[in-house]
Each structure stands twice: as C-alpha cells, then as structure tokens.
Write a structure and sequence with these properties.
Elements: E1 3-10, H1 16-21, H2 27-35, E2 42-48, E3 51-58, H3 61-71, E4 80-82, H4 84-95, H5 107-122, H6 127-146, H7 156-168, E5 175-179, H8 183-193, E6 199-204, H9 207-217, E7 220-223, H10 227-231, E8 236-239, H11 250-257, E9 264-268, E10 285-289, H12 294-358, H13 365-396, H14 399-411, H15 416-425
Parallel strand pairs: 5-6, 5-8, 6-7, 8-9, 9-10
Antiparallel strand pairs: 1-3, 1-4, 2-3
Helix pairs in contact: 2-5, 4-6, 4-12, 5-6, 6-12, 7-8, 12-13, 12-14
Length: about 425
Amino acid sequence: MTEITSMVITHSKATVEEIEEAWEGDIEKMLKDLHSLDLVCECAVLKTCNRVEIYVVSPKGSTVLFQFAKKMGLSSNIIDFFEHEESIMHLLRLACGLESMIIGEDQILGQIKDLYLVAKKLGTTGKMLDTAFSKAIQVGKRVRTETEINRGALSIASASVDLAEDTVGDLQNKMVLVIGTGEMGTLVTRALSHREIELMYIANRTYETAKDLADEMGGHAVHFDQIDENLSRADVVISATGAPHYVLKYEQIEKAMNFREKELLLIDIANPRDIDPSIDDIPHVTLYNIDNLRVINEKNLELRMEEAKKAQAIIDEEFELLIKQYKRQRADTLVSELYAQSYKLRVNEKDKAITKLGAYHTIGDTEKQIIEDLTHSIINKMLAEPTKVIRYAAEIGDDELLESVARVFIANRSNIKERSELLKCSPSTE
C-alpha cells in the first residue's frame, strides 16, 4: 500500500554533531535525489537546528528510507522510522511545538511552512503530503489559539540568553556580542533587548544588515572583520549564522584570551556549528551549544505540562479526522477509476449501437438522447452498490478488498507503463 513513511533524527536521540553529520547537501538536492528513486512518489524534508526529518510516500517506504540512511552512513541508534499513522501523529505534534526541544516554541511552525513550500515548488509533493502538511499547519495554528502552550514560550534563541544569565549572572553590566542577523540572530537580539544590557554588539558579513538590526534593537553594529578586537572585550558571545564553516576558530579565541583577564562565555546555536569545539579546551573559556539547552527545556516542560495535555487532545481529534480523510481519498480514487473505465466503455458501445441503427433508418436527436440516458442510467445503477462497498471497505480499513479492486481495474489497462505507474503511486496520490 502507498502511504507516508518518515525517518526522523532529532535532539531526543542525537547530539548536535550527529545531526550535522546527518545532513548532506542542500534541501533541493536531497529532495531531487529522493524523488528520483523508483519507489518514491512524493517526498518532503524538514531541517532545523536540532532535527532532520524525511517524509516519503511510497509502497515500500521503510525499505527506501533504510537504504537512504545506510547510503548516508547514519547509525540506526539515532534514527526513528515511523510508518503511516505514526508519521502523521509526529508531524501534527511537531507543528504544535510538542516535539521541540523548547516545548511550545513558535518558530517550528514557520519552519514547517517554509520547507513544505520548497518541496511543493519543486514538485516533489502530491495529494498525500499536501493533505498531511496542510493539516499540520492548520492544527499548529489551532493549538496556539486555543491553548497557552506558547505563552511566554522560549525559543532556542531566548533560551540561549537565559543560559548566558544562568552562567555569568546578571547581564546588566556585561558586553554581549551577537554574530549573525538571520532569523535566529534576530531572535537573540530581540531577547537581549528586553534585558538591561549595557552593551550589545551585532556583527554580520553585510554591515548594513547589522546596522539596521542594531538601530532597531538598541545595539551597536560591528564590521565582520572587527570581530577579533571585540572578542577581547566581550563577556558573552552568541553565534547564530548560517555559515557552512566555523566562524570562530581556535586561534582567534586563543589570541583574544591573551589580551583579557576575565572569563569568556561562548554559546553556539548554529547548525552547522559556528564555533570550533576544540575552543572549549582554552583556559577561562566556556563553550556551550544546543545540547546544553536541554536543561532549559526541562524547566520549561514542567511549566507547560497542563497546556501540553490540552494541545494533545486537539491533536488527537484532528488526527482522527485526517485518517478518515485519507480513507475517503483512497475510496474516491478507486471509485473514480471504476466510473472512468465504465463510462469509457459505455460511450464506445453507445456509439457502436447508434452507428448500427443508423444503417437501417435515420436516428434523430430524440432517439440519441434516449440511448444516452439509458446507458448512463444502467452504468450508474450497476456501480451504485460497488461504490457503497468500496467506501465502506475504506472506512473500516479493509485493505485486502481495496487492493483487490485496484488490481482488477488496473489489470484492464492496456498501457503497461501507465499500469506500472498507477500501481506504484495509486490510489492515494492520484
């Protein structure tokens, strides 16, 4: 049966380093590689700072994803493989913030929307994934409207600021340097702007972008080539760029520490990481990354358990509706195929009959309409009961009957290639 299968690598089992290693190339390349596989009808990929998730629609999804993981050299210890209903439930929970490191955070919903649109524009999604992702986005909005799961919610960015305060104390008299002005860097500066900080510096490769953000948040812009001199004065550095390489290297920090006597806290919330992990060996330097934010999440989780229960109740309700929707879609596809083939036969035989009758005497419009209505009525009455049976079979999950019906009507097709493609991706994706 062609259904959704997913491969999920997240912070719950994998470290930041392992999540980095799980990613190979850009999103579009991965989507194209997946979609080019013979058994993959649809696919979508989610990539954030603490997760890599792959969703495929395939008659053999588990095999496809297992082989894909093997090709990427990934350990099965850090992967969860989910079948159809598990994949749907996970996606709904993810959109509602219940699978995030910071329970209830809002950022994940926007990330799901953006990454789904990438797949949709590339043409790698179809009816099944479009239905799942549309529902997930709708449920994510509903949960945030009807519960307080995200009230005062922490993001990875704001959690990094809390971690800084937990480590160095009050930030009021501290100098904080933020590297990066993308989505995560902007969230960091916004979180810092609500604290009483004496000096906040913002660095970015494009100085104008850094200046615009600094002016908005009450900070000071820094040219990227001035980072080294600011490292000697900063108390806290939070790095959140999208660079594919280390932004802060061992030699930079080692040199900066020669010109200062105070401790230096570095927090790396980028993926791939911005800060060389070996820097943690330099005396008087403390380096934290996303893994260290788990402690913040544990405190957050205790506060949100009641709202999480309310959110799960909504998810359960919407999950049942979605499963019923998929069942209806599967039945409708089979019924549509049944009617399409029967109507084609009806038209052919009706035309033959009119041609034969026309050989004996003139057939007028009235007679033609009567024959048209007669054949139409016969087909509809013949298919009425099978239609009920197919829809009931879908409703109760009688897959054996549905597969049998599909095979019977696929077998009637003369085009071998068309038959093969229909068997591969039907009925859920038509």
